[in-house]
């Protein structure tokens, strides 16, 4: 495997137990459960969130879309057919339509065309059945949860375990929903956070968005830390003249720091192909920003070429080497579909590591 130099460097640094180059020690890096423990349960279900909490995740991440009757619910996208059985439900065939989603023509069924009661009749399915075949055993068991139910789950688990569990919601397409549907999800999220007493600076909450304007609004309305998400290419939808590359310069990051507390970049912006660190973490820290890259997963298909093992897309690769490289780069948190594995690595348990 061509990965050997990368693996040797990354594993060596972690084995020494040295502090990271720019940030916290490995054990202080936040483990953020991406859509819950979505490597083991269908994403954005109460089962996935609860499993992540039980595995020791510091934060769980619900992506939030909205229903016709203005209830925030957890789905990765407003279009429902990839993650629910809506396409097989004949009673909802007339809800199928084609619309523009940030420059893409998408045909399907959209959450904002359904009331919460109607969404409750749908059942969730695994989004990536060829990669995560084991998760398909849970198809049809779970409903789409509301944000309020996710908060209630977190509080119940906190009472059970005695530890704090953070929430890391992402608002999906807030500008698009306001433009096309007249729905202000920023306002809806602020109302819910206030209702649950989760709008203060010391609340265990981060709010993340791939857009600038909504974050600037939130900065005036609530005190929780805000994160500008950064995609692999392009720029923020609500600022068509901006490019992510410009935003990730020292000047651009200084501007981000005027309304946000951190960035959530695509992992490829933090690590080069050989596993070495780019300058992004150091530049962001110099601007006073936290860095929480996305998304570290176990399967070959999601890993850099250097960290893949022989086998197909679903083969478990050397995710530990990528963790080590992120630790060395100095990140403050990591999004992952597999919180149990990263919690173990952060604690120094390398029993399941690729090269131990």
TrEMBL record:
Its EC number is 3.1.4.46. GO terms for cellular component: periplasmic space. GO terms for molecular function: glycerophosphodiester phosphodiesterase activity. PROSITE patterns: GP_PDE. Keywords: Glycerol metabolism, Hydrolase, Signal. One of its GO terms (biological process) is glycerol metabolic process. PANTHER family: GLYCEROPHOSPHODIESTER PHOSPHODIESTERASE GDPD5-RELATED, GLYCEROPHOSPHORYL DIESTER PHOSPHODIESTERASE. This is glycerophosphodiester phosphodiesterase. It comes from Erythrobacter litoralis.
